[in-house]
Fold this protein.
Amino acid sequence: MAELTGKRPLQSVKKFYFLDYFYILLKSVEKYSEYSAVFDSFKNLKYEHHLGESKYKKLTVEVESPTEAQQKRYEYTFKQVIEESIEYGLIKEIRNPESFSLTTDGRELLGVHERMGLTGFNLAIFKLMEDTYEAFHILVDFMYEANPKGAGLLIFPHYSPRKLGLRRQRMRTSGDFRSYSDRLVRQLQADIKHYLKRDVKLDTKKDELLDKLTSAGLLPARDNEPFDLRDYNRITKRIRDFWIGYFLKDLYKFPHPMMTFDFWTYRGKQIGVIHATEIYPFFSGKLVYPTSVVLDRTNSQDFRDVYKYNDGRRMFLHAPRGDAFQEDFVDTLLREYLSLRRVNPNYFISLVSLRETVCYSLKISWQTFGEYLDKVYRLNLLGQLRIRIALEVDKLPEETKATYLKQEPVKVHGSYRNIIAIDVTKGEENRVQAITKA
Amino acid sequence: MSRLSRKPKEVLQELQEGRYDRFNLTENPFPTVPVNKDSNDRRINGDIYEREIRDLEYTQIEDAFLKRPQSDLNRLRIGYICDTSYIGRGNGKSAFLVNLMGTVNRQFCLDISQDINKCFALYVSPEPGGRTKTFGLFVEQIFDSIVQSNILEICLASMRLDALAVVYPDIEKETRSMDEDTLIAELNSDRWFARKMIDPLKVSRKIGENDFLQSLPPEFPLFRDRTPLFEHFVTKDAFVHYFKSDLKKPKERLDFIFSHLVLFFMAAGFNGAYILVDDFERIPDFQSERQKRDFALELRSCILDGPYLNTRYGFYNILLVLHAGVPRLIEKAWNESGLENRYPISIKSSADHWVAFEKLTPRHVLMLVGKYLSEYRLPHTQQNGVAPFTEEAISVIAETNEYNAARVLRTCWDLLDQAADDPERKTIDAAFVRSKAEAPEFDETEGSHPFDKSTTTDLREKATET
């Protein structure tokens, strides 16, 4: 994979996931100019926008003041956002005393947010990022190349000891981790064979990993020796990162670290050009796939031209609009609903799971899914749809004790929903049969 | 030679040993399907039941409901039996309910309440397909379980017996030596009346003098035998026909169940009834918000304060069995209907009407498995406890199945079945359990690999189509 010339390398991306950070920085600089005042406003807006410390949004709004360590991390992110904003010419830095001011471009971008909301804002930021890095072009092409038969789907399977039938309480010795490693390797080999149609032997890799863990002092050399129980999470994390890295680097041949890949894919997800998820029904691990293509041209009405590259090619975002697609959407919604119900005999099933399978099947972004679900739900309320949809709320994430929102609920008709049931209108049964057979 | 005297060359060999003889068991004692109270198989009809496991829950119900005098109008009329954990189906709620019904019906609560109450219990389970969407359909289910429970025959028999004591005292004396089931059957049979030369009309008139029956409408099925044109001997069929064919309007049906039948039951000597509703979530699961609210309103009206005799006497008590997620599903409807103020469903602290159905403990699992084994031991065997399982094996099974009763029992069935295949094996120990649990946990991925090419769109193909 050759990087396009004249652009900044992918790994020099600034280290944050949320594009919202650009917005809250511009908002802060709009109001204040002095460094500490801008930082304070940035922190407050960070809370207000529920921006967590990783790629997950926060569920709780903390009122207490951050610890020193947190403060440092926030400042690090703050500086990263400032650097990238300066790079794009959105703000200007003034020395002595250190302060900032908005440029015309920055002011215009705030205007975009006011007029078109976060979606329009993200798209504008996307153009700035592509001008500087062309990262999404590189990534989208890379994904199609890495798995041409699977329409660009990249899988990163992972199985915890628990998933492989091993209980944490019974993991005591080095040998226990070795036998977990054996099972894991068997499972990964089977997954690679099934999904990527490739036969690989991972035993050498496994030995390499175990040696690393031993030389790092995490696992004792002999099988019957116990490891330090406090290291359990550290060891499992090392194992997970190792295999995820193996997939990215060795199997898919991506030349940059996982971190770089993650920053770009999750940024792409917010724009809608790439989809990434860590929770997919019946699959354990993470998956990433493109929801866009880079081509000279397309005749299909379902694509939106979002960027023109110097070589004349264009980035087309898969964002269907027409009524014909609505039919496809309803069919897919129903088909995926029925297939999820097959394993979970309840009438109501998880809406976020259904969103994942529908998005994958149609290769659309969460945003497109949300728009269409909202549309067909309204038609359903008017009785103009051939299926009947009931959307309800079970336990919402904010009612749990979790701090981070790992699965965003779906907002339909103005309120959050997380479970869905679908019924078929009388006289449409034959059609259902046709859909499920197809 | 005639085929009558010819013999086959092969003689059948008697099998030396039964499949489970080695384990001192007559057969595999564990159930593999959920409780079905109508089954003849003791393993699945809830018959094999270790009461001690659910002692806490039972005692709470006994104290809050069964022992409280029905005449006390301030007592609880609605209760919830709710899972405290999200471990899913198979925690033993159905078995508990079936046994609760059995316990109440054994002496119609007279023993439990020390003769204060005479109540019967009904088991209602809404249809799994989601047909039970409205309160009307729910009432139909209540009626069906009244019919199935034999309570109508018992009431008719009891009223007729009282009447016989007055109009045919000699025959009544004769009946004292009969066993109860036969007596109930005979008192519901016109042939028996004919054989004994009893005039049913005379008995019926005597029954009609009962105070409670005075305000019943003339078309009430009990009075069917008084029509001058046809001679009907009233059986439960008259009730079924009346409810299913004559009563068409929802309001008529509610009046029948919540006013007329209440009088009928009281005339037969009962002063209350418990309606035990299993799998209640099958109702709200399929309801729209509006249906949920209407349901809650009607429930309140029929049980607590609507224009029915039931609300004045407080005859029916209703116990709803809820999964952990159900309160959330019906909370809004309960609030809007006002039920939440009287019988809050979403409470955090303990309350008499809210029976927490706890997860099993390790000791419970041992008791549960031991109970099933003891029911299928070979006669004269000395073994007890959980043999052929070791206690450690049971603890591994319990842990891997998250203390879910149904899954524990199902796993025991599997393990015993697999152990029977190995002629050398006499005990099932922890190592054997672990060796069988090697396979990855989520077998649902098998055969349903989620990202096969056929289930997705290739955007490059789509974009380049002409």
User: Anything to note?
Assistant: Residues 129 and 243 of chain A are 30 Å apart (CA to CA). The radius of gyration of chain A is 24 Å. The longest strand of chain A covers residues 285-290.
